[in-house]
Design a protein that fits this description.
The chain has helices spanning 2-24, 64-76, 78-83, 97-100, 103-106, 117-126, 137-149, 151-174, 184-189, 209-214, 229-247, 250-259, 261-270, 286-304, 332-338, 343-349, 372-387, 390-393, 434-441, 445-451, 474-478, 485-491, 523-528, 535-541; strands spanning 321-326, 330-331, 357-358, 366-371, 421-427, 464-470, 512-516, 555-559. By secondary structure, it is mainly α. It has four domains: 18-308, Lysozyme; 321-404, no CATH class; 421-491, LysM domain (Membrane-bound Lytic Murein Transglycosylase D, Chain A, Roll); 504-559, LysM domain (Membrane-bound Lytic Murein Transglycosylase D, Chain A, Roll). Strands 1-4 form a two-stranded antiparallel sheet. A two-stranded antiparallel sheet has the order 2-3. It has a two-stranded antiparallel sheet with strand order 5-6. Helix 7 (137-149) crosses helix 14 and helix 8 (151-174) packs across helix 11. The protein is globular, with a radius of gyration of 26 Å.
């Protein structure tokens, strides 16, 4: 009997280790590309200026730099820009009315510094969450980030949540998981179904290729189910359930989703076996330290956005939809031919199809999502739609390579000509997007991407771009690198909503001190640096009519207080 007990225990241990190893080596985090050892998997994440012996369970860190890039991808995505009619030549953070809305929206009376901590704590507790919604300074700073710094993007996400959250809630309920886990998709992808990280994570839940395959998601030339809202959420729910079976703590589960179980286990070991997120906080990668505060803050802002004067912005394509299964090859252009619908709408509602082709067969049907009013028309006209230009799109009933569809018009990609042009360089500034830069230099966005080997639409602050301009305009465009945003907009005949003027007679006045605006500054933060100053006073003194128009390098005068 004793031998049998030992054998059973040994078998159970082997089974646990095998299952754990599968999870241990697979992470959604873009910090840990599969098959590529990273520093995060080799060293402990302890900031040199932190003394762990005097560790405080009340972290006070800002993570704007980490999460700004994630949310920037939302408004840089072509499909999102089309869905929300965002002008690609306009800075969405400053002048786009679809994002910034109006001055009254930003100059809300509900500023973060005016809201007592006790009110924020009471609001979080009122959510009655199964997941502990702790409150500390890091959480407060993330709430400020959502409610003040990326207001326009939050309003887009509020609109998108009306479409995606019902899917998430139904599936999380099916697996008996906390419904609040739906907020993880906000910090993973900003609710952008086509989000794609530098490390290769894709979709609403940012699955890496191997992890997606492990959880049953199909990824091939034509289909990427990591971008399928329903199937990817099913996979994410199963992964979260498996992580909870290991840790039994939702904060650790959420953190492990970001950096992988390996990093969590090392942090637990190095903290003497503590299994509380806040106790191992400073042993975690910096992004993961911000992940749980970002989650808690997302839960807050998605429930209390009205208290911060935020308004959901509804998409022009995400309306009431329905799904029909197709069992034969079909091209999006065939669907457009039979329905009064824009191809961008089809792409937006069906993000899992990579080449505008649904590779369906009788023994392997695929879903097609359409606006509700188009479903019956599609069913009635399906035969005609499938027959439309069948030999063009599917000769001999085979899928034609997408690049060969244009073979009759061109055989090679068109390379932008540089003849008669001079190369100039431009350094990307904070919050600039690629369409905006192309507009300033009067070049095609596709040419700018070709010259700089840019695959998507994302450019980063500090990135140096090569741009070819007419020879006789080279000197003119060389000056653009030193121009302010307003000056560049004025150069192409665009006006901005802000008019910021500093009185000429203020220079050298001993009654004033001058503040140079830095990236990320706002009037409320600036005012806090000067005793007795207020945001309204600075605004009035400098004739600022739109606080969204602050830009790095701008000089603001502030009255000296005795």
């Amino acid at each position: 009997m004793k031998v049998m007990h030992i054998l059973k225990f040994t078998f159970s241990l082997i089974l646990f280790i095998t299952s754990y190893a599968i999870l241990y080596g697979n992470s959604f985090s873009e910090n840990k590309p599969e098959g590529v050892p990273s520093k995060e998997s080799e060293i402990a994440y302890i900031d040199s200026n932190i003394v762990l012996d005097s560790f405080s369970v009340y972290p006070d860190e800002a993570f704007d730099d980490i999460f700004s890039e994630k949310f920037d991808s939302l408004v840089n995505d072509l499909h999102i820009r089309n869905a929300y009619n965002i002008d690609s030549t306009v800075n969405p953070l400053i002048t786009d009315p679809r994002l910034s809305l109006c001055e009254s929206t930003y100059n809300t009376e509900f500023k973060m510094q005016d809201i007592p901590d006790s009110v924020l704590i009471d609001r979080l507790e009122a959510l009655n969450s199964m997941i502990d919604l702790s409150y500390n300074e890091s959480v407060k700073k993330m709430i400020d980030f959502y409610s003040q710094r990326i207001r326009g993007k939050v309003e887009i996400m509020l609109g998108l949540s009306n479409y995606y959250f019902p899917f998430f809630e139904q599936i999380l309920d099916k697996y008996q998981l906390p419904i609040e886990l739906k907020y993880m998709a906000i910090i993973e992808s900003a609710l952008n179904a086509k989000a794609f990280s530098r490390a290769g994570a894709s979709g609403l839940w940012q699955f890496m290729y191997g992890t997606g395959k492990l959880y049953g998601l199909e990824v091939n030339t034509y289909v990427d189910e990591r971008r399928d809202p329903i199937k990817s959420t099913e996979a994410a729910a199963r992964y979260l359930r498996d992580l909870y079976a290991i840790y039994g703590d939702w904060h650790l589960v959420i953190a492990a989703y970001n950096c992988g179980p390996g990093n969590i286990n090392r942090a637990i070991a190095r903290s003497g076996g503590k299994r509380d997120y806040w106790s191992i906080y400073y042993r975690l990668p910096r992004e993961t330290r911000g992940y749980v505060p970002a989650f808690i803050s997302a839960a807050y802002i998605m429930n209390y956005y009205k208290f911060h004067n935020l308004t959901p912005q509804l998409s022009s394509t995400h309306s009431i939809t329905d799904t029909v299964m197709v069992s034969d090859f079909i091209n999006f252009n065939q669907i457009v031919s039979g329905l009064d619908i824009n191809i961008e709408t089809i792409r937006e509602l069906n993000p899992m199809y990579k080449k505008d082709v649904i590779p369906a067969k009788k023994d392997h049907p695929y879903p097609l999502v359409l606006p509700f009013e188009s479903i019956s028309r599609f069913i009635q006209s399906e035969k005609d739609i499938l027959a439309y230009k069948r030999e063009v799109y599917f000769p001999n009933n085979k899928i034609k390579e997408p690049e060969k569809l244009a073979a009759n018009t061109t055989t090679t990609p068109k390379v932008p000509s540089t003849e008669g042009k001079t190369k100039v360089y431009y350094t990307v500034k904070t919050n600039e997007v690629i369409g905006m830069v192309a507009g300033w230099f009067k070049v095609k966005t596709s040419d700018l991407k070709y010259w700089n080997n840019i695959r998507g639409n994302l450019i980063r602050s500090g990135q140096k771009l090569t741009i070819y301009v007419p020879n006789d305009m080279a000197d003119y465009y060389k000056d653009f690198d030193a121009m302010t945003f307003n000056e560049k907009q004025h150069a192409i005949g665009k006006t901005t909503t802000q008019q910021i003027i500093v009185s000429k007679d203020a220079a050298g006045d001993a009654n004033f001190i001058y503040h140079t605006v830095r990236s990320g500054d706002n009037l409320w933060d600036i005012a806090k640096k000067y005793p007795g100053a207020s945001a309204d006073e600075i605004k009035s003194l400098n004739n600022i009519t739109d606080t969204r128009g602050l830009y790095p390098g701008q000089k603001l005068k502030i009255i000296k207080k005795s």
